[in-house]
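Fold it.
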Amino acid sequence: MIRCYPLIFQSHVIILQRRAKFKISVKPKIPYSTSPSIFKHPSHYKFLKLPDSNLFHPIPYPPRMDSLPDAVVQYILSTINNAKDVASCNCVSKKWKDSMPYIKSLYFPRGVFDHLKNGQTSDCIVMQIVSSTFQLEDLVVYCRFTSSGLASWLSVVGPSLKNLELRMDNFVDQDTTQDTPSKLECIQAARNLESLRLWGVLMVDAPKWDAFQKLQNLEIVGAKFEDSALAEALRATPNLTRLVLLRCEGLRTVWIKLNHLEHCKLDFDCAGSCSLTLTTPNIEYLEVQGCSLIRVRETNRLKNLSLANNDGRVCMVDFGKLPALESLSIRGVQWCWDAINKLLQLASEVKRLYMKVEFTGDFEALLPFPEIDFVNFFKSHPKLKTFDIHGAMFAALCQKNSLKNVDSSFRIPCLEEVAITVRSPLNAEQKMNTLESLVKFGKNLKKLKIKILGMKSGHSSADDFFEEICMLRYMNPRLISIE
C-alpha cells in the first residue's frame, strides 16, 4: 500500500493543475488541509506539501514496533538467540522484556564472558537468562562453565530441551570432585534430547547415563576415549539415526551396535591401527577414517561408502553384499590388494568411484598395483558414471596387456565424467592408449579432466608426454581439459 503513494501524489498534482487551468474552484476536503494539526495522531503521518499549493498530503510512517500486536512482537523477538542480544532486548522496554521468555533458542558464544566485573561468573549469568525462559528447546554454550553450573541450568530447562550443544573442554576437569558429578553426567537431566553435540570430551570412564530414548543425533568432536566408555555411552542411545565421532583418540577396538543408525561418520586418530565392527542393518551412509580392520556385514541399504587411512595400512575389509551402493571412495597411502579387489567386486552397481591409494602390499614393503584389465573392469561396473582415479590405479589400467581384450564392439555404456591424475611420464605410450580408449569407447562421455600433478623428470620424455596430451585435447576440445 505504501508503494502506491507516489502514484497517488502524481495524480493529485495533475488534477490540481487542470483545475487551475480552467479556474474551477473546489473546496478542499480531508485528507487535504492547510494545517496538519487536525489529525489526532500526527506521529503516525508525515506530510508532503503539494507544489504551488497550501495543501498538505498525509502519508503514514511504516508501523513502529510498539504499534504491533503483542503476539507479533513475541514472535519476532523469539527468533533472537544470541545471549548478548537477548540481554540487550530486556533493557529496551517492559513490553520487550515480557516477550523474552518466549524465545526457543539460546546461544552463548565463546568469550562472551571474558571480561566480567563485580564478582560475576558465567554460570550465574547463564542461569539468570536460561531460567527466564518458559519452554527453551535449543541451548548452545561455547563459553566457559563448570559442572555445577551446567547441573543448575539443566535442572531448570532440561525437560524441555530438544537440542543441546556444549564446548566441554574437560580434558582436565579441574572443577569436578568426587562429590560433584562430571559434566557428562549432568547431561542426564536433559533426558528428552533429540540432538546432542559435544566438543572437547574426556570419556575415560563410562558416563552414568540412563537411556536417552528420544536422542537421534549424537556428534562428538575432539575426544579422548576408552573403548569400554564409548561402548557404554552408545548403549544409552539405542535409537540413534545419526552418529558423528571426529578426531577421537585412544580407541583400539570399536564395537557399534545400533539398529536404527542410518548416517555414520567416524574419524579415529589412532595411528591407523584401530579396528571397527558395525552392526547397523539400516545404515545408508558410512564414512570411516583411521581404521585398519573394518567389518560391516549388514549393508543391504548402504548407498554411500567412504574408507580412508592416511596414517596406516588397511589390512582387511569385511562387507556384506552392496546392492544399493551408489558412491564408493577409497583413499590412503597403502591398502592390501585383497581389500581393494574385494571392495571393487562387491561394488558392481556403483555409479561414482573415487580411488586415491598410492601403494599396495601386505607388509611394510610398498608395492605398485597389479595389472588391471581395462575391458573387464568396465564390464564389471556397467553403471559407473563418474570415475576419479589417482596415480597407481591409472598406472594399473595402463599396463602392457590391459588393452589386449579390446575389440570394436566394446562400449562403456554409462560413463559421463572422468578425472585422472598423472604424476609420471613412465609408460607414456600405454597411458596415451588408455586415454584414447576412454574417449573412443565412452560414447556418453561428457568430460575428461587430466590433472598433471608434480611430474618431475630431467628427461625429454616428460615434455613429449605432455605434448601428446595437449594434442589429444586439441583433437577433443569440448571433451578434454588439462589442469
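The longest helix spans residues 5-21.
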